[in-house]
Amino acid sequence: MSTVSDFTASQIDFVRSLTQARYHQDIDLHLADAELRLNLDSSTMTSCPTLFWGARDASFVIFKTPGERFRCQFFYSTNDHYGTGKDEYDNLEECVTTLLQVQADHENQREESK
Fold first, then answer.
1. DSSP string over 28-56
2. Whose CA is closest to 103, among 71, 77, 75, 78?
3. What pLDDT shows up at residue 2?
4. Rounded average pLDDT over 68-85
């Protein structure tokens, strides 16, 4: 099983600054671990450090994977998950910014369809 380094304090602070810019308020970030199947051809699960938070009826997760890479998704319920259209990022800023933008676009579409 691969070992993935934890999120650094500076990475957490960086994500916090991006969420504050998006929501114009402090957002509580939480650390966790998630088991991910990193290779679709393998059943091996890898424990990956995870940052998660909730805002505007959505939950967000950023998974840190080996090689300082990142995966992300947001969801509204256990059956209502969304990604960004990109499986993995090698840049935390691009990962979080894209996740926040895709969710904002989705939120707008949901509001327009009501």
1. --EEEEEEE--STT----EEEEEEEEEET
2. 75
3. 56
4. 94
